Structure formats: structure tokens, C-alpha cells
């Protein structure tokens, strides 16, 4: 149980850092678009905060070494799957299969809802510029939460 909670937390934290980096990139692209559209005189300037990129890189490196540590302890683990993707016996395989199926179904439900929610972006484009990033990142967040709430039986 503790391992699955840790894995869920680490996965959600990775999505948070990815969203933060995407928001900073969005700001940089908006500044660059303003330079192009308004034909501003040559001392051009686009400011980007380095902190989100640095924290994302540090967190990714920490996760990489954490995965390597788990792999060196002879645990069956892959860098591409969540930490709690254990299928050591038939019971765990069945529970993992059910959890994957429910996560897949939640994606099929949340993706059209997210696409429908993107229709409302022009209404609050000025107030909430990161709306599309948030909506797109909600899909894997729902998938991760669904998977880990159903995998707790292991």
C-alpha cells in the first residue's frame, strides 16, 4: 500500500512539473508571438524563468536514480511503467489487469469531456491562459488516480 501511494504521488508530481514547464513555454511563445505580430524594433526580449526547467530536470534525475536503485534491489521494474506495476503471481496480474482496464475506461470517458471543455477556452482566454494545458493534463491525472485507487488491493 505504501509503495503504491508513493508511486502515485511521484507520478502526479511529474505531471505537475511537466505542466509548470509547459506553462512557462507557453508564456515564452506568447511573448515571441507579440514580437512578430506587433513588429517591434530590434532590441527584442523574451524572458523565461529557468526554475521550472531546472526543477523538472532535477526531479527527473532523482526519479531515474530511484528507479535504478529499485532495479538494483532485484525488483522487477521498468523505467516506462509506474513503480507499482507488480505482476509477480496470478492474483497480482488479475488485479493489475482490472486496474488497467478501469484506467482505460476512465480515459475513454475523460478524453471526450476534456475535448468538450476545450470549446470554452475562447471565453476565458484572457483570464486563464493555461486552460488548455490544465485540461490536457487532467486526462493522465484521472488515469493515474483511477489506476492507483484500484491497484490498492495488491
Descriptive report:
- With 154 residues, the protein is mainly α.
- 69% of the residues lie in helices and 0% in strands.
- α1 runs antiparallel to α2, α1 runs antiparallel to α4 and α3 runs antiparallel to α4.
- The chain is flat and about 65 Å long.
- The mean pLDDT is 85.
Which features characterize this protein?
0% strand, mainly alpha, 154 residues, single chain, 4 helices, flat, 69% helix
Query: Percent range for helical residues?
Result: 55-70%
In N-to-C order, the SSE pattern is HHHH
Strand fraction: under 5%
Number of strands: 0
Separation of the first and last Cα atoms: 7 Å
Largest sheet: none
What structural category characterises the helix and strand content?
mainly alpha
Mean pLDDT: 85
Number of helices: 4
Round the Cα radius of gyration to an integer and report it: 20 Å
Shape: flat
Low-pLDDT stretches are: none
Task: Give a concise summary.
The protein has four helices and no strands. By secondary structure, the protein is an all-alpha fold. The longest helix is centred in the first third of the chain and has 37 residues.
Set down the secondary structure blueprint.
Elements: H1 2-38, H2 51-72, H3 90-117, H4 131-150
Helix pairs in contact: 1-2, 1-4, 3-4
Amino acid at each position: 500500500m505504501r509503495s503504491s501511494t508513493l508511486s502515485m504521488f511521484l507520478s502526479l508530481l511529474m505531471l505537475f512539473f511537466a505542466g509548470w514547464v509547459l506553462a512557462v513555454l507557453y508564456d515564452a511563445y506568447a511573448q515571441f508571438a507579440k514580437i512578430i505580430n506587433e513588429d517591434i524594433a530590434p532590441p527584442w526580449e523574451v524572458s523565461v524563468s529557468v526554475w521550472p526547467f531546472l526543477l523538472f530536470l532535477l526531479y527527473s534525475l532523482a526519479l531515474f536514480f530511484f528507479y535504478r536503485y529499485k532495479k538494483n534491489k532485484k525488483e522487477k521494474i521498468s523505467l516506462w511503467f509506474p513503480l507499482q506495476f507488480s505482476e509477480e503471481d496470478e492474483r497480482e496480474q488479475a488485479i493489475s489487469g482490472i486496474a488497467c482496464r478501469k484506467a482505460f475506461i476512465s480515459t475513454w470517458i475523460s478524453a471526450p469531456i476534456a475535448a468538450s471543455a476545450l470549446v470554452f477556452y475562447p471565453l476565458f482566454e484572457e483570464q486563464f491562459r493555461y486552460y488548455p494545458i490544465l485540461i490536457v493534463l487532467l486526462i493522465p491525472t484521472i488515469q493515474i488516480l483511477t489506476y492507483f485507487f484500484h491497484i490498492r488491493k495488491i
